[in-house]
Amino acid sequence: MSQVVFITGATSGFGRACAHRFAEAGWSLVLTGRRQERLEDLKTQLGSRVPVHVAALDVRDDSAVKAVVEALPGDFRPITALINNAGLALAPEPAQRAALEEWHTMIDTNITGLVNVTHALLPSLMERGEGASIINLGSVAGQWPYPGSHVYGASKAFVQQFSYNLRCDLQGTGVRVTDVAPGLSESEFTLVRNRGDQAAYDKLYGDTTPLQPEDIAEQIFHVATLPAHVNINRLEIMPTRQAWSPFAVDRD
Ligand SMILES: NC(=O)C1=CN([C@@H]2O[C@H](COP(=O)(O)OP(=O)(O)OC[C@H]3O[C@@H](n4cnc5c(N)ncnc54)[C@H](OP(=O)(O)O)[C@@H]3O)[C@@H](O)[C@H]2O)C=CC1
Ligand SMILES: O=CCS(=O)(=O)O
């Protein structure tokens, strides 16, 4: 049976790097995200090496999530690894100036979206059983408070606790669960958070050495390919120049 990875948010950053990393190892890929063009580009890049199925998907829409899962071609099930990666931060200002709509978007994406996809794929993961994995993208922001993190950090604290609780329920099924919690990592995440402000992006990453999406993809691949009896509960990863809080970054 082939190994199949289902990735949410595959159109950028960690998700896209995971698509490349798992393809390198010969896994079949199910790639999802809202930007269809980017999904098609990935299919063009990777489809000659491994089987690739793409589906435009907004994880906030639970019926769309169910439909995508139900329409998975037979060669792409059961799923071996689910990478719940789609997510975002918005509203970089303090809570008292943040827009409620942006708080809702973070909750709908980082919490409801992750729950939607997990719920829809649990039967497939259970069918795979031993060696299957759910890998959830949390963040150091789920543990370390900082100004401007308000709902974003709280949504990642949810991801951590949901991952731990899932572990308890899935005990005995062979399905593993890991909360991967990266620190400062260079990706479009910072452009999304700062509404496309390139100066904010350059300021955050320009004079230090952030993690790259490939660093995170390597760790996720490691987690998914450990022997079936090994479960990493939480993996916190920071750049060497960050210790510990999101603001404790060594700069030139
Ligand atoms: N970069 C960082 O410093 C860190 C990021 N993280 C977390 O890692 C994850 C990936 O972040 P990163 O790769 O850096 O960010 P990017 O902005 O590069 O990628 C985010 C991905 O999420 C997808 N996405 C966003 N909203 C939705 C939605 N409603 N439905 C489906 N897909 C969606 C985007 O695709 P599209 O727009 O095409 O839908 C995109 O592919 C996020 O959960 C983030 O919170 C955690 C710690 C550190
Ligand atoms: O999750 C992202 C990392 S940080 O911006 O909160 O430090």
UniProtKB/TrEMBL annotation:
Highest taxon in the source lineage: Bacteria
Keywords assigned by UniProt, alphabetized: Oxidoreductase
Reaction(s) catalysed by this chain's protein: 2-hydroxyethane-1-sulfonate + NADP(+) = sulfoacetaldehyde + NADPH + H(+)
Database matches in InterPro entries: KR_dom, NAD(P)-bd_dom_sf, Sc_DH/Rdtase_CS, SDR_fam
Gene3D superfamilies: NAD(P)-binding Rossmann-like Domain
Keyword Oxidoreductase attached: yes
Subunit structure: Homodimer and heterotetramer.
PANTHER family: ALCOHOL DEHYDROGENASE
Name of the protein in its database record: sulfoacetaldehyde reductase (NADPH)
Organism whose genome encodes this protein: Kushneria sinocarnis
